[in-house]
Amino acid sequence: CEQRQGVLQNTALELISEGRKLADELGTELCGLLLGDNVDGLAAQIGGHGADKVLVCNSPLLGKYTTDAYAKVIVDVIKDLKPEIFLIGATNIGRDLGPRLAARLGTGLTADCTKLEIGYSKTDDQHKIILQTRPAFGGHLMATIICPRFRPQMSTVRPGVMKKSAFDQAKADAVKVEKPTFELSEADIKTNVVEIVKAAKEL
Q1: Partners of 86 in the β-ladder
Q2: Residue from 49, 41, 8, 18 nearest 172 by CA
Q3: Which of 85, 66, 78, 90 is nearest to 152 (CA)?
Q4: Hey, how many other C-beta atoms are within 10 angstroms of the C-beta on 108?
Q5: Peptide linkage before 180 cis (omega within 30 of 0)
Q6: What is the per-residue pLDDT across 119-138, written as a single tens digit (0 to 9) for each?
Q7: CA-to-CA distance for 84 and 15, rounded, in angstroms?
Q8: Burial class (CB in 10 A: 0-12, 13-18, 19+), 10
Q9: Are 102 and 154 a contacting pair, CB within 8 Å?
Q10: Hey, how many other C-beta atoms are within 10 angstroms of the C-beta on 28?
């Protein structure tokens, strides 16, 4: 669940809302993964939009996004949790992070998805998988991609294409919050964030 400077991004809440639908179809639990420094207070917001559980990884080394730190922690959590599906927003951070996670986990990644649904492959009508739809050939064709053999099935999803559900206080109050153990040191991080400059908005 992407946050920047302690603020959850809309893309994260859109994915949680869409993930809720997918989890219901699969009859499984929906879990959000939150990285940062002292970001526990955001867990209820994630729960209020549909997550059953939020895993919170706090560290001063996660306060600012770096590929090295985030990739290491997320890969460790995924290897322990073994989710069927892992969704990432196709933001600047998500596009940087997604391919690295997929490579380290030895799985596939479908980038810039505009539609997600649960279904079956043409060769297996017994095991449900995620059908990932994305534009191809300059947007002239919509391709549906599957990853039947490797886990997790991973997608980056374009911001704004999924509908964010209404916040539910009862769900926020009921969400389970867990803090997985992880190892992260300065030696794991090869880059240093000097400054973050926001792009000027077009008039």
Answers
A1: 154
A2: 49
A3: 85
A4: 18
A5: no
A6: 987 777 788 999 999 988 77
A7: 15
A8: middle
A9: yes
A10: 14
> Helices 92-105 and 67-81 sit at what angle, rounded to 10 degrees?
50
Q: Are 31 and 78 in contact (CB under 8 A)?
A: no
Give the pair of three-digit tokens for residue 162.
């999924």
Give the other-Cβ count within 10 Å of 76's Cβ.
Answer: 17
Of 1, 102, 94, the closest CA to residue 53 belongs to 1
User: Token match 């600012």: residue?
Assistant: 64
Structural tokens at position 117:
């649904």
Question: How far does the chain reach from its first CA to its final CA, in angstroms?
Answer: 30
In this structure, CATH architecture of domain 3-188: 3-Layer(aba) Sandwich (3.40)
pLDDT tens across 75-122, in order?
999 999 999 999 999 999 999 999 999 999 999 999 999 999 999 877
Residue with tokens 């990932």, as numbered in its chain: 132
